[in-house]
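Weekly modeling sync, notes
Attendees: S.R. (lead), two postdocs, one rotation student

Agenda item 3: backlog of single-chain predictions. S.R. asked that every request posted to the team notebook include the full sequence so nobody has to chase files. The rotation student volunteered to paste the first one in as an example of the format we agreed on. Action items at the bottom.

Example entry:
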Amino acid sequence: MKNFTTKFEKISKYAPRRRGLLFERLFYEIFEDHGILLERSFKSKDGSQQIDGAVEINHRIFIVEIKWEESKTLAASKLYSFLGKINSKIDGTLGIFISYNELEQNFLDSVRGGIKQNCIIIHGEEDIIPIIQGEVSIADYAWYIYQQASTRNRISVPVSEFKSIPKKSLINDKWGEVYEALISEKNIGDFELKLNANYDQIDNLPEKAIILYPILQEKPKILSKFDYLLDTIINHKNDKRKLHESLANMLATSHWIKYADEYILDKIKKLSKLTTEAADKTAINVLPYLKEKEGQWEEENKASLVLDFVYDHLSNEYKGKLACAYATIYCDRSRKDKFPQKRLANKIFSNIDAKNRWNTIKDEVADQIEQYKADEIVFSDSSKKETKKYVIRRIKSKFERIIEESKSRNLNLQLEEMYEQA
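Predicted structure, as returned to the notebook:
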């Protein structure tokens, strides 16, 4: 496979519009190099549709859409337009949507939510660059995603996962032998023997284990084998640290939610220490999801498991952000302490002196006041004075626990000032 890095670096220096067109052309050359290109950019017979290209992989036809633009400008309408192009073709035609920049989760969800599941997605620098560098066959990679989409509704798969699974042509290598024993129906004894015999001859085993965990955990019959694999890695001093580092790296990406599982997080949490930078990076990833899913307890719990993994290593700035994010959960007396979101909320506020808790969450309170005030101005027929009283009363009720603990002076005056500034 050819390395197209030099051409890519030249393309990356162009203005966005020109860059996008040349990025498309680059992929034509990559497809051609892999022997799968059917057609470059073309228009439908009636001229109503512009198609970026078409490829053939294992006798299946995929039409292709290739983008290099900011994720925020990739509106769902562009995706729907592409899905429309696929659906207007003969039944059985599939699609590959390729984006250099990582796509938003709602973008991916809109593909899964379609009536017909006929499009796979390759997106994000981490998945695109290995293709450009010739490390990965785009034909084999796209086919693997297609298989995952067909069997598990996974329309996008990290290239790191694809690289970690032994290919059939290499199944006689040491990792292939161990992997086959791991996923086979044979008992754990066979796997233990093969792992112990080949352990020192397998490169990057801690990273492989972490990358494959999301798909392996779906197979309950092999969890005991996977647990043995982790224990074996943990018993190797240097690999123990690499295992922790590999998981931390995944939590700092958009794939964090695949690892929001108590088993793997608890197993690895105490093996090593996170840097503050790595911990903050994970918080940056996960906090928006927590806020977006507010009130959806199952999703809050997923985010909380991951945030608890990094909490002790966060900078003071991000510990403060978590306090604001978890203030409502901490004050909600209907939530049970046994659940991850409430456990983390209690942990966060136990690390803040009671008298300082109100001041710590004032930014969150101000945001809530602004939101409530805006809602009431639109929907309430009450006077301005009554609206103010209502909003302040609502805020005091919502944050009652922290207000009681902090014993803040001049609380009403503070709330009135926040209301006027909102």
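Discussion: group reviewed the output briefly. The longest strand covers residues 60-67.
Action items: rotation student to repeat for the remaining queue; S.R. to check formatting next week.
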